[in-house]
C-alpha cells in the first residue's frame, strides 16, 4: 500500500478578523491582495469598532494618496510624509508596484473589505 503524506497548507482562520486590501495594477489586469490582521479575535469585534474604523480610515487615505501619487512615487513619499506622517508614507512606499508598467508606478487600492471568521470558521464580510 502506498503511503499518503499530508502537508499542512493553511492553518484555520477561526475567530480571526482582518482588512483585505485589494491592490490592482494596469486596468485591473493584476491583483495583489494583502491582509491587515487585527490583534483581537472576531468574537470581540463589537468591542473594537473604533479600532476597526480607525484602520479602515487610514487605508482610505492611503487609497486617495495612491490615486494622486501612483506615478510620482518619489515626490509622493515626501508629500505624504509631510501631510500625514511617516507611518502613512511608509505604507505608501510598501504598496505593490504595478507589473503592467514595469514596476515603475504603484498599484492602486481598488477595494477594502473587512473579513471575519467566527469560531466555526464561517466567513463574514463587510464593506465599511
Main features:
alpha+beta, four-stranded antiparallel beta sheet, 3 helices
Q: Fraction of residues in helices?
A: 25-40%
Tally of individual domains: 1
How many DSSP H or I helices?
3
Radius of gyration computed on alpha carbons: 18 Å
Secondary structure class reads alpha+beta
* CA-CA gap between termini: 53 Å
Order of helices and strands: EEHHHEE
Question: How do the strands line up in the largest sheet?
Answer: 2-1-3-4
Structure commentary:
This protein is α+β, with helices and mostly antiparallel strands and 128 residues long. It is built from three helices and four strands, in the order ββαααββ. The protein has helices at residues 49-69, 73-84, 86-93; strands at residues 16-25, 30-37, 108-117, 123-126. Strands 2-1-3-4 form a four-stranded antiparallel beta sheet, with helices on one face. Strand 3 (108-117) and strand 4 form a beta hairpin. The mean pLDDT is 93.
Summarize this entry quickly.
This protein is an alpha+beta fold and about 130 residues long. It has three helices and four strands.
List the helices and strands and how they pair.
Layout: E1 16-25, E2 30-37, H1 49-69, H2 73-84, H3 86-93, E3 108-117, E4 123-126
Antiparallel strand pairs: 1-2, 1-3, 3-4
Helix pairs in contact: 1-2, 2-3
Amino acid at each position: 500500500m502506498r503511503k499518503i503524506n499530508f502537508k499542512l497548507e493553511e492553518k484555520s482562520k477561526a475567530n480571526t478578523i482582518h482588512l483585505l486590501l485589494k491592490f490592482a495594477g494596469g486596468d485591473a489586469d493584476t491583483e495583489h491582495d494583502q491582509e491587515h490582521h487585527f490583534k483581537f479575535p472576531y468574537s470581540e469585534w463589537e468591542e473594537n469598532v473604533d479600532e476597526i474604523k480607525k484602520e479602515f480610515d487610514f487605508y482610505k487615505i492611503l487609497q486617495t494618496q495612491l490615486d494622486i501619487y501612483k506615478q510620482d512615487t518619489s515626490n509622493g513619499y515626501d508629500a505624504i510624509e509631510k501631510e500625514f506622517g511617516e507611518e502613512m508614507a511608509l505604507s505608501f512606499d510598501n504598496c505593490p508596484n504595478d507589473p503592467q508598467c514595469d514596476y515603475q508606478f504603484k498599484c492602486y487600492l481598488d477595494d477594502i473589505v473587512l473579513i471575519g471568521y467566527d469560531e466555526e470558521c464561517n466567513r463574514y464580510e463587510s464593506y465599511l
